[in-house]
Amino acid sequence: MLTKNYGLRVVAIFEIIGGGLGLVSTIVYLLKVPLNYDLLNTLLSFYIILFYMLNLFSGIVLILEKKIGYYLSILSNVLQIVGVNIFGLIYILSSLVFLFVTYDSASGVELEFLFGGRSLISYKETLNSFIIGINIVPIFLLIILIKSWKNQVD
To answer: How do residues 113-137 score in pLDDT, each as one tens digit?
Structure first.
């Protein structure tokens, strides 16, 4: 049975579309790039695919009003809140919409918007930057999830 809760529907549809598009685009990208047998890059690529699968699955079970859907959606959104680029370690995950408020040690505070999401997890020893950011979109989705959870329990 599909949920009648409008907030849950919005979050679920957001996750289904974001997870599906992210999964397809990541697989297409990986099929286009030359094979690199670097174990670290292979594991990181696998993690990104798992992230988009988590998004897709959490959206499906959330729209079906399964309790685990709340937990998976919370996990999925928490993984997207913080993005960093600290001395070569890069971690950015976002599905569908990316609205980051970032602090860059070189240029200060910036606001970046991107539709279509973004995923990048890597380590490059040559980078000396310090950037940390907060993705605002998953925070809003978490608020909707928590309010919807409270309404379901009450």
So the answer is: 888 778 888 777 776 788 899 999 9
Six-digit token pair at 89? 């370690």
Answer for the pair 13, 141: CB distance below 8 angstroms, yes or no: no
For position 143, what pLDDT does the model report?
A: 94
* C-beta contacts of 22-31 below 8 A and 24+ residues apart: 22/48, 22/51, 22/52, 22/55, 22/95, 22/96, 22/117, 22/119, 23/49, 23/52, 23/53, 23/56, 25/116, 26/52, 26/119
Residue 129, H or E segment: none
3-state secondary structure of 98: strand
pLDDT in tens, 91-115: 888 888 888 898 988 888 988 888 8
Q: Is the pTM of this model over 0.90?
A: no
C-alpha–C-alpha distance, residues 43 and 58, integer Å: 22
Residue 35: per-residue pLDDT: 65
Among 37, 24, 14, smallest CA distance to 138 is for 14
